Please model this.
Amino acid sequence: DQIGGLLLGVNAGDEPDGPLPARGLGVVLGPTLPGRFAYGAPSVMIVGEPYFLSVTIAALTSGETTPQLDLRLAQDTRESLGADSPASIRPGDVMLSSNMSAELTGDGFEITELTEARQSVDLKGGVTRWLWEVRGTAAGRSSLVMRLTIAGEGGAPDKLVRVVRSVIDVR
Model:
C-alpha cells in the first residue's frame, strides 16, 4: 500500500515498517508510555533542492483523544515544515520514554540534522520534534528511513521502537 509517497508494510533492511513490540521495555529503558507521532515527508523532490522533513511526538494523556492528538501533532509538524511544504503528514503509534533519538537515513540523499538526534521527551503531553534538511542527489526513486529509538539507561542498549520508510521520487 502507498499513501502520499509513503510505503506501508515494507521492510527497511531487517526492520519492519511500523511500531515494534514494547514487551519488556520498562525493565532496561525506564518508564514508557504510549504516544503518537506525525512524520512529514514529501513524495517528490527536485535534485539539489532543499526540503524539510520532520517527526513530532507526544504522549497520549487522559485529557486528549487520539484524533485530537493527531491533529495537534500534524499542525505542529506542518508549522515546523512551513506552510508551502509539499510534505504529506503520516500519524502513527509509538512507545515513548523520557530520552529518545530519531535518525533519518537514505542512499541518494544529503541529510543535515537541524535538531539534536537525542532529546528529552516531555511525557506529560508536550511535543518533541526532530527536523532535517534533505536534498536528493540523483534522479530516481529512493528510500528514506526514519527510526525512533528509546535511549537505554544504565548502560542498556537503545531500543528501536518505530521505523517509517518513505519512497521519494527525485526528479
